[in-house]
Amino acid sequence: MVPPEFVSFFSSMAQCGATLLGLLFVAVSLRRGTGSSDESSEEAVLADAALLAMGNGFIVSAFALLPNVNVGVVALPLSGLALFWVFDVAVRLIQAWGDEGVVSRWLYRVRALGPTVVAFVIAVAELPVAIRLLQNPKDDATVCTLGVIVVGYYSVALLRAWMLVGGARHGIRAVLTSLRATSPPAPPP
């Protein structure tokens, strides 16, 4: 378990992660009804990437709250898994794009790969933090760094989820207005 001053933070992060995971499943379910169900599609890759980031933050936060459990024991394999998964996501994103519209969609692709690079940096940072936690699980500075890593994972996950629902392509106004119920136009006076 983490030092007592971090319990409320990791408790909040675990609750946040559970909520975000639930919303991700709703978004994926809604998206399946409108898009491709192909596992190699861009949407499937974005959903996997969001799951990776949310899942890592949630699992680390939940295990940080367990008494007599060194959170480094969980963070170490998760950082290795995250490194593998980030590489897999990058390869699958590039494969999903194929050769179509390379020039017309280059900015979107930079935006899509950006969070992948950030997730890679976070996973690399998580590795030595996990090792330090194995050596000294009560070190405040290391636990604080782990908290920053969890927030980083959630930030990447939110970006990925936003891309999954189409926010990156259409902007916030277009996504929000498409969610509102449309009613027939009022008759002219």
Q: Explain this structure to me?
A:
The protein is mostly helical. It has one domain (4-171). It has 6 helices and no strands. Helix 1 (7-32) packs parallel to helix 5 (140-164), helix 3 packs antiparallel against helix 4 and helix 4 runs antiparallel to helix 5 (140-164). It is globular, with a radius of gyration of 19 Å. The model has no long low-confidence stretch (mean pLDDT 81).
Summary tags:
mainly alpha; 76% helix
Low-confidence stretches: none
What structural class do the secondary elements suggest? mainly alpha
Q: Please, what is the average pLDDT?
A: 81
Largest sheet data: none
Order of helices and strands: HHHHHH
- Helical run tally: 6
Q: How much strand content do the residues show?
A: under 5%
Tally the beta strands. 0
Question: Termini, distance in Å?
Answer: 68 Å
- Helix percent reads over 70%
Rg over CA atoms, rounded to whole Å, is 19 Å
> Any idea what the shape is?
globular
Task: Indicate how many domains the architecture comprises.
Answer: 1
Topology summary:
Layout: H1 7-32, H2 42-64, H3 72-97, H4 106-135, H5 140-164, H6 167-179
Helix pairs in contact: 1-2, 1-5, 2-3, 2-5, 3-4, 4-5
Could you give a quick summary of the protein structure above?
The chain has helices at 7-32, 42-64, 72-97, 106-135, 140-164, 167-179. It has 189 residues and is mostly helical.
